[in-house]
Amino acid sequence: MTDDTVIKDTVRAKYGEAALRVLHGQASSCCGGAAASGGCDPVTSNLYEAAETASPPEPAVLASLGCMIVLGSFLLVAADRQVFWGLSLGLGVFVGPAQASSRSLMARMAPSAEASAHFGLYALSGRVTGFVGPAALGIVTAIAHSQRAGMAVIVLLLAPGAALLATVRLRPAAGAATIS
Predict the structure, then answer these.
(1) Does an H or E element contain 179, and which?
(2) Are residues 65 and 119 in the same domain?
(3) How many whole angstroms separate alpha carbon 148 and alpha carbon 137?
(4) Do 39 and 121 reside in the same domain of the chain?
(5) Residue 127 and residue 172 in one domain
(6) 174 lies in the same domain as 156
(7) Residues 121 and 137 both lie in one domain
(8) Which pairs count as long-range contacts for 6-12, CB under 8 Å and 24+ apart, including other chains?
(9) Domain residues for 61?
(10) Considering only CA atoms, which of 86, 91, 53, 97 is closest in space to residue 72?
(11) Is residue 171 predicted with pLDDT exceeding 90?
C-alpha cells in the first residue's frame, strides 16, 4: 500500500468509528471537552504537541487582525504598484492564521454541550459577513467613485471586530468565555 492509501484508510476508519459512536448514542461528536480530555480520538488528535496547544488562540487572532488592519491601511495609500503587491502579499499571510485561530478560539469558548449551536452561529456569521462585506464595499465604491474608499470598508469592519475580541477573556480552567 502507498502512504496515501494508508492515510485515507486511517482517516476513513477514524471517521467511521466516530460515526458509530454517535449512532449508538455514546457521544454527540468529537468536539469540545471530550476530545480535549482524551474521550475521543479525532483524526488530528496527534497533529500538535501539547505545548503548541497550551496557549489560547486569542493572541494569535488579535495579532493577525492587527497586522491585517495595519497592512490594509497602508494598502489604501500605496501609490506604487510594487509596494501595493508587496503589501497585498503580506496581508495574505495573515488571513489564514486569523481564520484558523478564530475557529480554535471558538472551540475553546463554546461549552461542550453547546458546541454545535455555537459553531452553527459561527458559520452563519461567516455567511452574513461574506455578503455584507462585499455589498458594503460595492456600495461605497459606487457612491465615492473610488476603489480605495471601497476597500477602506474592509479595514473599518476588521477594526471593531478586533476591539470587541480584545474584551473577551477565557477562563483558564473551564474554557468558557467571559466578557470583561
Answers:
(1) strand 177-179
(2) yes
(3) 10
(4) no
(5) yes
(6) yes
(7) yes
(8) 10/43, 11/43
(9) 55-179
(10) 91
(11) no
The answer to whether residues 167 and 179 touch, using CB atoms and an 8 Å cutoff, is yes
Say what the pTM is: 0.64
CA-to-CA distance for 146 and 139, rounded, in angstroms? 10
Whose grid coordinates read 459553531? Answer: 119
Q: Are residues 10 and 45 in the same domain?
A: yes
Instruction: Render pLDDT for 135-166 as a digit per residue (tens, 0 to 9).
Output: 999 999 999 999 899 989 989 999 998 999 88
Q: Per residue in 86-142, pLDDT tens?
A: 999 998 899 888 888 888 888 888 887 888 888 888 889 888 888 888 999 999 999
> 109 — phi, psi (to 5°)?
-80, -35
Mean pLDDT of 30-45: 50
59 and 48 belong to one structural domain? no
Instruction: Please give the backbone phi and psi of residue 17, each rounded to the nearest 5 degrees, phi first.
Output: -65, -40
The total number of structural domains in the chain stands at 2
Q: Last residue of a domain, which of 29, 53, 77? A: 53
What letter represents residue 114's amino acid?
A: E
